[in-house]
Amino acid sequence: MAAAVTGLVNVLESYRGRDRVMRTLCYSCQLLGGVMMQKNGMKQDWGKSLLIVASQLSHCRTVLRLFDDLAMMAYSTKYGLGKKEEDWLIRCISVIGNLSDQLYYPCEHVAWAADAGVIHVKSEKWWTASTALWGLSLFLGILRSIRILNKLRRHRQKHTENDLPKTRGEIKSQIRSEVLTIIGCASDLVNAIHWMPPGFLWGGCFPTWLVGLMGTISSFIGIYQTAVGGNAGGV
Length: 235
Hints:
Structural class: mainly alpha
Largest sheet: none
Keywords: Membrane, Peroxisome, Transmembrane, Transmembrane helix
Transmembrane segments: 126-146
Number of helices: 8
Strand content: under 5%
Organism: Leptobrachium leishanense (Leishan spiny toad)
Helix content: over 70%
Oligomer: single chain
Order of helices and strands: HHHHHHHH
Shape: globular
Main location: membrane
Mean pLDDT: 89
Protein name: Peroxisomal biosis factor 11 gamma
């Protein structure tokens, strides 16, 4: 018990760890609140309360992302044009993905500032732009993982029973990680399209509980991958 508490404290002391916990709680509250809102009586009141919590956590994460630009820029600069990548397609996908991630933040900042009354512009188009950039990043992430999966499977087929178990195990672990990344990105992409203006695919058509479910799935995948040293992310 003490070890679990210590582990949770260590997670909450880091910005990324705290954000993942907040994200999971946000979508979980949205899922449970959406389900309860379909009930009557006391459950509906609980549902409203959970949706308020989800809204406040989401707003908190938006404010904290005001400070993410420099970290993203440092990552993009370090990656550069991906000269260390052997596969040209993965390199291209990664560079475009980094660019969309970099542009996402200022668009969201402007939208937030407009809603807060800091600047006097209409926030809707900026929210749409930031959501579109997030969706593009997620789609590129799916393509990147599919490409890596294909390379890993071809590599695994070349291995024989005489290969080291460690090598086979590493390939299997990488395949599992990429499959989870695809599921997580796809779950978030479903939500990103829902938040686009009505008329764009299924924009605005999802019930609250379904948005919460998709976000909860991707959040738990992100937590798992962080725990095992993988890479996953989401807004």
